[in-house]
Protein backbone atom coordinates (compact mmCIF):
# COMPACT_ATOMS: atom_id res chain seq x y z
CA UNK A 1 0.00 0.00 0.00
CA UNK A 2 0.96 3.66 -0.24
CA UNK A 3 0.39 6.68 1.97
CA UNK A 4 -0.96 9.58 -0.04
CA UNK A 5 -1.25 13.13 1.27
CA UNK A 6 -3.39 15.74 -0.43
CA UNK A 7 -3.55 19.48 0.15
CA UNK A 8 -5.81 21.34 0.63
CA UNK A 9 -8.34 19.04 2.26
CA UNK A 10 -11.08 21.54 1.48
CA UNK A 11 -11.46 25.03 0.12
CA UNK A 12 -14.10 27.53 -0.84
CA UNK A 13 -13.32 29.40 -4.03
CA UNK A 14 -14.77 32.24 -6.03
CA UNK A 15 -16.02 31.78 -9.55
CA UNK A 16 -13.35 32.47 -12.17
CA UNK A 17 -10.38 31.70 -9.94
CA UNK A 18 -8.02 28.72 -10.11
CA UNK A 19 -6.89 26.32 -7.40
CA UNK A 20 -3.99 23.90 -7.34
CA UNK A 21 -4.25 20.61 -5.45
CA UNK A 22 -1.08 18.88 -4.34
CA UNK A 23 -0.55 15.14 -4.00
CA UNK A 24 2.46 13.62 -2.24
CA UNK A 25 3.13 9.86 -2.13
CA UNK A 26 5.44 8.16 0.35
CA UNK A 27 7.07 5.98 -2.33
CA UNK A 28 8.08 6.33 -5.94
CA UNK A 29 5.33 5.43 -8.40
CA UNK A 30 5.20 5.42 -12.17
CA UNK A 31 1.64 6.56 -12.63
CA UNK A 32 -0.57 8.84 -10.58
CA UNK A 33 -4.26 9.23 -11.24
CA UNK A 34 -6.60 12.13 -10.64
CA UNK A 35 -10.29 11.41 -10.05
CA UNK A 36 -13.34 13.57 -9.52
CA UNK A 37 -16.19 12.50 -7.26
CA UNK A 38 -19.36 14.52 -7.63
CA UNK A 39 -22.27 14.09 -5.21
CA UNK A 40 -24.29 10.99 -6.01
CA UNK A 41 -22.03 10.05 -8.90
CA UNK A 42 -19.30 7.51 -9.39
CA UNK A 43 -15.61 8.33 -9.37
CA UNK A 44 -14.55 9.63 -12.76
CA UNK A 45 -10.98 9.54 -13.99
CA UNK A 46 -9.75 12.97 -15.07
CA UNK A 47 -6.24 12.09 -16.19
CA UNK A 48 -3.23 9.87 -15.70
CA UNK A 49 0.05 11.60 -14.83
CA UNK A 50 3.35 9.99 -15.78
CA UNK A 51 6.63 11.48 -14.70
CA UNK A 52 8.50 13.05 -17.59
CA UNK A 53 5.64 13.13 -20.06
CA UNK A 54 2.37 14.91 -20.72
CA UNK A 55 -0.62 13.75 -18.74
CA UNK A 56 -3.21 11.64 -20.55
CA UNK A 57 -6.70 13.08 -20.27
CA UNK A 58 -9.96 11.17 -20.41
CA UNK A 59 -12.83 12.11 -22.66
CA UNK A 60 -14.53 15.26 -21.42
CA UNK A 61 -11.46 16.65 -19.64
CA UNK A 62 -8.95 19.03 -21.23
CA UNK A 63 -5.52 20.29 -20.28
CA UNK A 64 -6.55 23.95 -20.35
CA UNK A 65 -9.14 23.32 -17.65
CA UNK A 66 -7.21 20.76 -15.59
CA UNK A 67 -3.47 21.28 -16.07
CA UNK A 68 -1.38 18.66 -14.32
CA UNK A 69 2.26 18.65 -13.28
CA UNK A 70 4.37 15.61 -12.42
CA UNK A 71 7.85 16.87 -11.58
CA UNK A 72 9.08 13.65 -9.93
CA UNK A 73 8.04 10.13 -8.97
CA UNK A 74 6.40 11.09 -5.66
CA UNK A 75 4.54 14.32 -6.40
CA UNK A 76 1.85 15.71 -8.67
CA UNK A 77 -0.44 18.71 -8.84
CA UNK A 78 -3.85 19.22 -10.42
CA UNK A 79 -5.07 22.72 -11.12
CA UNK A 80 -8.75 23.45 -11.58
CA UNK A 81 -8.80 26.58 -13.76
CA UNK A 82 -11.39 29.30 -14.21
CA UNK A 83 -13.70 27.58 -11.77
CA UNK A 84 -17.48 27.58 -11.94
CA UNK A 85 -20.01 26.15 -9.47
CA UNK A 86 -20.13 23.00 -11.64
CA UNK A 87 -16.55 22.30 -10.57
CA UNK A 88 -17.64 21.88 -6.95
CA UNK A 89 -16.58 18.35 -6.20
CA UNK A 90 -14.15 16.11 -4.39
CA UNK A 91 -10.88 15.63 -6.23
CA UNK A 92 -8.89 12.52 -5.43
CA UNK A 93 -5.33 11.52 -6.14
CA UNK A 94 -4.58 7.81 -6.42
CA UNK A 95 -1.78 5.40 -7.22
CA UNK A 96 -1.59 1.70 -7.87
CA UNK A 97 -1.30 -1.05 -10.43
CA UNK A 98 -4.27 -3.26 -9.78
CA UNK A 99 -5.56 -2.06 -6.46
CA UNK A 100 -5.82 1.70 -6.29
CA UNK A 101 -4.90 3.62 -3.16
CA UNK A 102 -6.42 7.02 -2.62
CA UNK A 103 -5.61 10.21 -0.83
CA UNK A 104 -8.11 11.74 1.56
CA UNK A 105 -9.46 13.97 -1.19
CA UNK A 106 -9.80 17.71 -1.68
CA UNK A 107 -13.33 19.05 -1.35
CA UNK A 108 -13.81 22.17 -3.45
CA UNK A 109 -16.81 24.44 -3.23
CA UNK A 110 -17.12 27.13 -5.88
CA UNK A 111 -19.40 30.07 -5.15
CA UNK B 1 -20.28 -0.28 -23.03
CA UNK B 2 -18.40 -0.91 -19.81
CA UNK B 3 -20.44 -0.10 -16.74
CA UNK B 4 -20.97 -0.91 -13.08
CA UNK B 5 -24.31 -0.79 -11.25
CA UNK B 6 -24.59 -1.08 -7.49
CA UNK B 7 -27.71 -1.85 -5.49
CA UNK B 8 -29.29 -0.86 -3.29
CA UNK B 9 -28.32 2.80 -3.22
CA UNK B 10 -28.84 2.89 0.54
CA UNK B 11 -29.30 0.21 3.16
CA UNK B 12 -30.20 0.50 6.83
CA UNK B 13 -29.58 -2.51 9.04
CA UNK B 14 -30.00 -3.22 12.69
CA UNK B 15 -26.81 -4.24 14.42
CA UNK B 16 -26.39 -7.98 13.90
CA UNK B 17 -28.70 -8.10 10.87
CA UNK B 18 -26.76 -9.71 8.01
CA UNK B 19 -27.28 -8.63 4.41
CA UNK B 20 -25.63 -8.37 0.98
CA UNK B 21 -24.69 -5.57 -1.37
CA UNK B 22 -24.77 -6.17 -5.12
CA UNK B 23 -22.45 -5.02 -7.89
CA UNK B 24 -23.47 -5.88 -11.45
CA UNK B 25 -20.98 -5.22 -14.21
CA UNK B 26 -20.36 -5.38 -17.92
CA UNK B 27 -16.78 -5.00 -19.06
CA UNK B 28 -14.64 -6.08 -21.97
CA UNK B 29 -12.38 -8.69 -20.47
CA UNK B 30 -12.40 -8.41 -16.70
CA UNK B 31 -8.96 -7.91 -15.22
CA UNK B 32 -10.21 -7.47 -11.67
CA UNK B 33 -13.17 -6.43 -9.54
CA UNK B 34 -12.46 -4.26 -6.53
CA UNK B 35 -14.39 -3.35 -3.40
CA UNK B 36 -13.69 -0.17 -1.46
CA UNK B 37 -15.04 1.37 1.71
CA UNK B 38 -15.44 5.14 1.89
CA UNK B 39 -16.12 7.03 5.10
CA UNK B 40 -17.48 10.60 4.97
CA UNK B 41 -14.75 13.11 4.19
CA UNK B 42 -12.22 10.39 3.37
CA UNK B 43 -10.84 8.78 0.27
CA UNK B 44 -11.86 5.23 -0.66
CA UNK B 45 -10.09 2.48 1.30
CA UNK B 46 -9.24 -0.73 -0.53
CA UNK B 47 -10.95 -3.89 0.74
CA UNK B 48 -10.77 -6.75 -1.79
CA UNK B 49 -9.74 -7.74 -5.28
CA UNK B 50 -11.47 -10.61 -7.10
CA UNK B 51 -10.10 -11.90 -10.38
CA UNK B 52 -12.23 -14.81 -11.56
CA UNK B 53 -15.72 -16.25 -11.19
CA UNK B 54 -16.07 -18.41 -8.12
CA UNK B 55 -13.43 -16.54 -6.15
CA UNK B 56 -14.20 -15.43 -2.60
CA UNK B 57 -12.32 -13.17 -0.18
CA UNK B 58 -13.04 -12.55 3.50
CA UNK B 59 -12.05 -9.91 6.00
CA UNK B 60 -13.62 -9.79 9.45
CA UNK B 61 -17.40 -9.47 8.92
CA UNK B 62 -17.10 -8.95 5.16
CA UNK B 63 -17.03 -11.55 2.41
CA UNK B 64 -16.86 -10.75 -1.29
CA UNK B 65 -17.87 -13.18 -4.02
CA UNK B 66 -17.72 -13.01 -7.80
CA UNK B 67 -19.66 -14.48 -10.71
CA UNK B 68 -19.36 -13.71 -14.41
CA UNK B 69 -21.92 -10.93 -14.15
CA UNK B 70 -21.92 -9.67 -10.58
CA UNK B 71 -20.26 -9.51 -7.22
CA UNK B 72 -21.74 -9.57 -3.76
CA UNK B 73 -20.39 -8.07 -0.58
CA UNK B 74 -21.87 -10.04 2.28
CA UNK B 75 -21.91 -8.41 5.69
CA UNK B 76 -22.37 -10.80 8.60
CA UNK B 77 -23.61 -9.49 11.96
CA UNK B 78 -22.72 -5.89 11.14
CA UNK B 79 -21.72 -3.36 13.76
CA UNK B 80 -22.27 0.43 13.73
CA UNK B 81 -18.61 0.92 12.75
CA UNK B 82 -19.36 -0.85 9.47
CA UNK B 83 -21.46 2.16 8.46
CA UNK B 84 -19.90 3.65 5.31
CA UNK B 85 -20.34 3.83 1.56
CA UNK B 86 -19.14 0.70 -0.22
CA UNK B 87 -17.86 1.18 -3.76
CA UNK B 88 -17.36 -1.44 -6.43
CA UNK B 89 -15.02 -0.98 -9.39
CA UNK B 90 -13.94 -3.10 -12.35
CA UNK B 91 -10.77 -2.93 -14.37
CA UNK B 92 -10.85 -4.05 -17.97
CA UNK B 93 -8.35 -6.47 -19.38
CA UNK B 94 -6.50 -3.88 -21.43
CA UNK B 95 -5.26 -0.54 -20.19
CA UNK B 96 -5.57 0.88 -16.69
CA UNK B 97 -9.10 2.22 -16.84
CA UNK B 98 -11.30 1.56 -13.81
CA UNK B 99 -15.09 1.86 -13.85
CA UNK B 100 -16.68 2.70 -10.53
CA UNK B 101 -20.24 2.23 -9.35
CA UNK B 102 -22.06 4.95 -7.45
CA UNK B 103 -21.85 3.01 -4.21
CA UNK B 104 -24.15 1.66 -1.52
CA UNK B 105 -24.52 3.78 1.58
CA UNK B 106 -24.76 1.42 4.56
CA UNK B 107 -26.05 2.53 7.94
CA UNK B 108 -25.94 0.10 10.85
CA UNK B 109 -28.18 1.12 13.73
CA UNK B 110 -27.20 0.09 17.28
Descriptive report:
- The complex is a heterodimer of chains A (111) and B (110).
- With 111 residues, chain A is mostly beta strands.
- Chain A has one domain (16-96): Immunoglobulins (Immunoglobulin-like, Sandwich), CATH 2.60.40.10.
- Chain A is built from no helices and 11 strands.
- In chain A, a hairpin with a 2-residue loop joins strand 7 (68-72) and strand 8 (75-80).
- The radius of gyration of chain A is 13 Å and the shape is globular.
- Chain B has a single domain (3-109), classed as Immunoglobulin-like.
- Chain B has no helices and 11 strands.
- Chain B has strands at 3-7, 10-14, 19-26, 30-38, 45-50, 56-59, 62-66, 70-75, 84-92, 98-100, 104-109.
- In chain B, strands 2, 4, 5, 9, 10 and 11 form a 6-stranded mixed sheet that branches. A 5-stranded antiparallel sheet of chain B has the order 1-3-8-7-6, with no helix packed on it.
- Chains A and B meet through strand 5 and strand 10 of A and strand 5, strand 9 and strand 10 of B.
